[in-house]
C-alpha cells in the first residue's frame, strides 16, 4: 500500500522509548519504570465507587447502547455542574463534547484547523499536540516556558511569536512534563494577549485537581476571552484505561467559534460515540464522590518532594520542584545529549525515563520522570542514577 507521508510526522517519545526498554528487559535486566503517566501502573487504583458505578451501568442494561455522539446528556450536565462547583464557571451542556479521552478531542481540534496556519504551543509540552498538529499540517509554534521562573509561560515570547497566521494559544496547566502550575496572574496576562489578537485559548486542564497546594485555577474562571477547555477522567479519577474525556467551549461573548464547534461535533458523529457505560458511570459519581482525592494528593506530594530532594542533591542534575500533576523534569548538567543519557541509563542500569527532547525544543538537555512509584522503589532507582552519573563527565 502507498502510505501517507503525514504518518512520518507522528512521534511520541513516551511510548517510542518502550521499544528499547523491551529489548533491555528481554536481556534479563530488572526495569524501573519511571516513564508513563499512568497512576494505575503504580499503587494508585481506580476508586471503588467508580468501578461499582460501571458494573451497575452495565448490569442494569441501561447503558449498553450507542449514546449521543456529543455525549450522554446527564454526563454533560454533570460536567457543567463540576466546573461550577470547582471553579465557579457558568457553562452550557450544549457546549460540552464528550470524547474517547482528551486525546481524541486534541485530534478533532487539530483536524479542524486550516492547514498552513499556526498554533502557539508551550515548550516543553505534552508531545501529542505536536504530532497531531503536524499530522494535520497545522504549524505548531513553540513559545518558551521559563525554567528559571518555575516553568511559567514567557509572556513576551508569546507576544513575539504571534503572526497573522496564528489561530490559538494552547496551555497545559498543571503541566506535563514540567509539573508547573501556572499563576493566575500569568494566565490572565496570556488571556489578555489572546483577547487583543482574537485568538482562542485551548486550555488542557486534565490535571486540574492535582496541584499539590490547591493553587490551580481554571482558565475560564480567570478571563472572559473564549476558552476551549480539555479535561477527562484519566488522571483525576485514576482511570486512564477507561478512555473518557471532554472538551468544553466557553464563548460568552459569541466571538464566532460556532463553526469550530460544529467541526468538532461532525467528527464526533462519524465515530458514533464515546463508551456509553463509562459515561453513565461517571455521570453518577462526578459530583458526589470527592473525598478520595486528598489521600491521592498527599501521597503524590510526598513522593514528589522525595524525588526533588534526591535529584537536587545529585552532582550533575537539577530540578525545579513540581507543583502538580505526576511529573518532574530534571536538567542534565553533563556533557551528554538527553537521548543518549536516557538510552545509556536504560541499557546500563534498567532505569527508564523519557528523553526531554521528545517534549519540544526546550525539553533538550532534560529528562522526564513520573513521581508515581513508591519511595522505596524511587530510592533504589535514584541510588542507581546517582552512581551512573559518576561514570559520565
Ligand atoms: C497534558 C495531557 N493532556 C492529555 C492527555 C491524554 O489524556 P486522555 O487519557 O484523556 O486521552 C495526557 C496524558 O498523559 C496529558 O498529559
Poorly predicted residue ranges:
none
Tally of discrete structural domains: 2
- Annotated CATH homologous superfamily of the largest domain: Type I PLP-dependent aspartate aminotransferase-like (Major domain)
What is the architecture of the largest domain at the second tier of CATH?
3-Layer(aba) Sandwich
User: Could you give the order of strands across the largest sheet?
Assistant: 2-9-8-7-6-3-4-5
Overall structural class, as computed from helix and strand content, comes to: alpha/beta
Record keyword descriptors for this entry.
3-stranded antiparallel β-sheet; 393 residues; 39% helix; globular
Account of the 3D structure:
The protein is an alpha/beta fold and 393 residues long. It has two domains: 5-45 and 292-390, Aspartate Aminotransferase, domain 1 (Alpha-Beta Complex), CATH 3.90.1150.10; 48-285, Type I PLP-dependent aspartate aminotransferase-like (Major domain) (Aspartate Aminotransferase, domain 2, 3-Layer(aba) Sandwich), CATH 3.40.640. Helices cover 39% and strands 15% of the residues. It contains twelve helices and 15 strands. The strands form four sheets. Strands 2-9-8-7-6-3-4-5 form an eight-stranded mixed sheet, sandwiched between helices. Strand 3 (118-123), helix 5 (128-135) and strand 4 (139-146) form a beta-alpha-beta unit. The protein starts with 12 loop residues before the first helix and ends with a helix. The mean pLDDT is 95. Pyridoxal-5'-phosphate binds at residues 37, 101-103, 126, 172, 176, 204, 206, 232, 234, 240, 245.
Amino acid at each position: 500500500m502507498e502510505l501517507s507521508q503525514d504518518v512520518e510526522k507522528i512521534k511520541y517519545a513516551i511510548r517510542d522509548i518502550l521499544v528499547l526498554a523491551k529489548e533491555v528487559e528481554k536481556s534479563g535486566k530488572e526495569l524501573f519504570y519511571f516513564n508513563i503517566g499512568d497512576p494505575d501502573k503504580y499503587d494508585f487504583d481506580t476508586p471503588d465507587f467508580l468501578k461499582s458505578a460501571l458494573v451497575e451501568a452495565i448490569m442494569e442494561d441501561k447503558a449498553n447502547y450507542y449514546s449521543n455522539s456529543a455525549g450522554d446528556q446527564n454526563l454533560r450536565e454533570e460536567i457543567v455542574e463540576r466546573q461550577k462547583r470547582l471553579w465557579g464557571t457558568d457553562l452550557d451542556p450544549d457546549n460540552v463534547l464528550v470524547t474517547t479521552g482528551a486525546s481524541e478531542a486534541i485530534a478533532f481540534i487539530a483536524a479542524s484547523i486550516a492547514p498552513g496556519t499556526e498554533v502557539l504551543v508551550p515548550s516543553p509540552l505534552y508531545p501529542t499536540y505536536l504530532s497531531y498538529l503536524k499530522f494535520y499540517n497545522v504549524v505548531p509554534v513553540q513559545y518558551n516556558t521559563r525554567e528559571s521562573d518555575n516553568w511559567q509561560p514567557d509572556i513576551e515570547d508569546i507576544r513575539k511569536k504571534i503572526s497573522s497566521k496564528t489561530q490559538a494559544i494552547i496551555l497545559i496547566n498543571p503541566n506535563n512534563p514540567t509539573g508547573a502550575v501556572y499563576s493566575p496572574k500569568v494566565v490572565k496576562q496570556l488571556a489578555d494577549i489572546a483577547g487583543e489578537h482574537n485568538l482562542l485559548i485551548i486550555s488542557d486542564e486534565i490535571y486540574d485537581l492535582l496541584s499539590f497546594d490547591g493553587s490551580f485555577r481554571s482558565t475560564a474562571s480567570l478571563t472572559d476571552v473564549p476558552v476551549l477547555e480539555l479535561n477527562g477522567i484519566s488522571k483525576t479519577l485514576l482511570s486512564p484505561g477507561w478512555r473518557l474525556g471532554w472538551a468544553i467551549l466557553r464563548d460568552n461573548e459569541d466571538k464566532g467559534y460556532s463553526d469550530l464547534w460544529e467541526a468538532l461535533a461532525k467528527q464526533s458523529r462519524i465515530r458514533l460515540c464515546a463508551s456509553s457505560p463509562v459515561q453513565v458511570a461517571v455521570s453518577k459519581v462526578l459530583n458526589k464522590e470527592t473525598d478520595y482525592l486528598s489521600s491521592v494528593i498527599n501521597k503524590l506530594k510526598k513522593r514528589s518532594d522525595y524525588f526533588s530532594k534526591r535529584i537536587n542533591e545529585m552532582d550533575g542534575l537539577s530540578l525545579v520542584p513540581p507543583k502538580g500533576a505526576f511529573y518532574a523534569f530534571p536538567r542534565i548538567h553533563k556533557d551528554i545529549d538527553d537521548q543518549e543519557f536516557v538510552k545509556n541509563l536504560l541499557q546500563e542500569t534498567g532505569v527508564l525515563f523519557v528523553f526531554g527532547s521528545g517534549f519540544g525544543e526546550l525539553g533538550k538537555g532534560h529528562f522526564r520522570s513520573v513521581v508515581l512509584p513508591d519511595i522505596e522503589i524511587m530510592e533504589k532507582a535514584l541510588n542507581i542514577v546517582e552512581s551512573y552519573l559518576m561514570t559520565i563527565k
